[in-house]
Design brief:
Helices cover about 40% and strands about 20% of the residues. By secondary structure, it is of the alpha/beta class. Strands 1-2-10-7-8-9 form a six-stranded mixed beta sheet, with helices on both faces. Strand 12 and strand 13 form a beta hairpin. The longest helix has 17 residues.
Length: about 500
């Protein structure tokens, strides 16, 4: 089976439309981490993503009769653009089914290549199911984004180029993972010629479908996936990629949103290119690997898989970058409510640069501060917290508290004095007209909304924090409402950020 893939990779037709992208030596990153680091620049493809390779290779290997009927794909982004450009090159009709939540910039990009766009549903799964219906109805050929031999072979040309461009010592290659087509193709080629080179997958910690599958030794379906790195937000790894990964992938690392944001900044400072979150995923894993292994002088390659970034997401990325680089800590600190207590606290903090300071009067005895502090290194946070506690300040570390970072820091305003039965939930709403109305309509007039905070950071989903007043005897009714609503949600009533600043 391995030789079959190798032959397919060697015979691929991707260069009729794709570029041989450079393998750039990352001078600044190499110096900073005391290792030799290269970036494979798939962000320089005509559609700003590697997806073009697999899509074109699949379509170029179809018969003329099949091509004449047209092709169809379901995608919210990079695969859609790859299929659309490939269809334009082959002069065949293409239909792309995209969720209604797809940002307009991506819809316009697909249409610019001449493909017909059909907007259906609110998720990739909705779009995929509808695309399959059109396959049956219209006799179109479905171009799968990752679970296909020719697609995997097309992506495998990246591994082939890496070994052409880098013939010297090589310790590891870091590959972003969504459905698994890219890592399957790269790992097959690399392990065939250079089995000593580690192939390491990288996934978001809230969308680790390959990590979970390898741990379970079978494919699993994640209950839900995070959507920040939307290019790899896949609930189940592909069947073919999983079989390859079981024998050819050395390990899979999980990274968080803050680490991804920091990697976006790293690539920008190195190349002056802004990658999408999935495009910086592999670098985030590479940095984690260096820290874990304490390696020096290693030769490491990361794949920058794409740069289809919405401009309005940059504010959110910037906000989370400092935490991702461990250059900022967020803390909840309790101080006495008396004259001079602020000054005494600032003396306790010392020469640290305060990035954020939120406070509002709550009662006559205690004041709760939401504080951001600039750090010089990853160990400084623990030292500062220990120092404050030695001075008898109660401190809670909020640096890894998602609700605190996404909502509380923007809405610290003091406590309410007479609010009964408040239940707090965090939701992800699809960014489309009517989403909030749908929520309120389903709720009806049963309960009062006591708190509401919404942030749009340019993704397909918005993040909402909601307080609802629900008596104890109606909790079962509330649970039914939440389950039937269809939006991912998390109960946050016990979150210390809520208890300190809002409850």
């Amino acid at each position: 089976m391995e030789q079959t893939y190798i032959k397919k990779i060697l015979k691929t037709r991707v260069y009729e439309v794709a570029k041989k992208t450079p393998l750039d030596y990352a001078t600044n990153l190499s110096r900073r981490f005391n290792n030799h680091i290269w970036i494979k620049r798939e962000d320089l493809q005509p559609v700003f993503s590697f997806k073009l390779r697999g899509a074109y290779n699949k379509m170029a290997n179809l018969s003329e009769d099949i091509l004449a009927k047209g092709v169809i794909a379901a995608s919210a982004g990079n695969h859609a653009q790859g299929v659309a450009l490939s269809a334009a090159k082959l002069k065949i009709p293409a239909t792309i089914v995209m969720p209604k939540t797809t940002p307009e910039i991506k819809v316009a990009a697909v249409q610019s290549w001449g493909a017909e766009v059909v907007l259906h549903g609110t998720t990739y799964d909705d779009a995929s199911k509808y695309a399959q219906q059109l396959v049956e109805q219209q006799g179109l050929s479905y171009i799968h984004p990752y679970d296909d031999e020719d697609v995997i072979a097309g992506q495998g040309t990246i591994g082939m180029e890496i070994l052409h461009e880098h013939s010297g010592k090589l310790d590891a290659i870091f590959v972003p993972v969504g459905g698994g087509g890219l890592i399957a193709g790269v790992a097959t080629y690399i392990k065939y010629l250079r089995p000593e080179v580690k192939v390491i997958g990288v996934e978001p910690d809230d969308a680790g479908c390959l990590h979970a599958a390898l741990k379970a030794q079978e494919r699993v379906i994640l209950d839900q996936v995070g959507i920040f790195a939307d290019g790899v937000a896949v609930r189940q790894v592909g069947k073919l990629p999983f079989e390859i990964a079981r024998t050819h992938v050395d390990e899979v690392l999980l990274v968080n949103t803050d680490e991804i944001c920091a990697a976006i900044k790293d690539i920008f400072e190195e190349t002056r290119t802004i990658t999408e979150p999935a495009g910086a995923l592999a670098l985030a894993g590479l940095k984690q690997f260096i820290a874990r292994e304490n390696c020096n002088g290693c030769h490491l390659i990361t794949i920058a898989s794409g740069a289809n970034m919405n401009f309005d997401r940059l504010g959110y990325v910037t906000e989370r970058t400092e935490i991702g680089e461990k250059r900022e800590a967020l803390m909840a600190v309790t101080i006495p409510e008396r004259l001079g207590s602020f000054r005494q606290f600032c003396h306790a903090v010392g020469q640290h640069f305060i990035t954020e300071f939120n406070y509002r009067y709550a009662d006559d005895e205690k004041a709760y501060l939401f504080v951001g502090v600039r750090l010089n290194d990853g160990l400084e946070k623990d030292r500062l917290i220990a120092k404050l506690r030695d001075k008898e300040y109660p401190v809670i570390d909020m640096t890894d508290n998602e609700m605190a970072k996404s909502h509380i820091r923007h809405m610290v305003g003091g406590h309410t004095q007479s609010l009964a039965n408040e239940r707090l939930y965090r939701f992800e709403f699809p960014e489309r007209p009517g989403a909030l109305l749908h929520f309120l309509t389903r709720m009806g007039q049963r309960w009062n909304i006591s708190l509401f905070h919404y942030r749009n950071h340019g993704a397909a989903y918005g993040r909402i924090l909601v307080g609802i007043q629900v008596p104890d005897e109606q909790l079962n009714e509330l649970q039914n409402f939440l389950e039937n609503l269809g939006y991912p949600y998390w109960g946050e009533a016990n979150n210390p950020a809520y208890q300190l600043f809002l409850n």
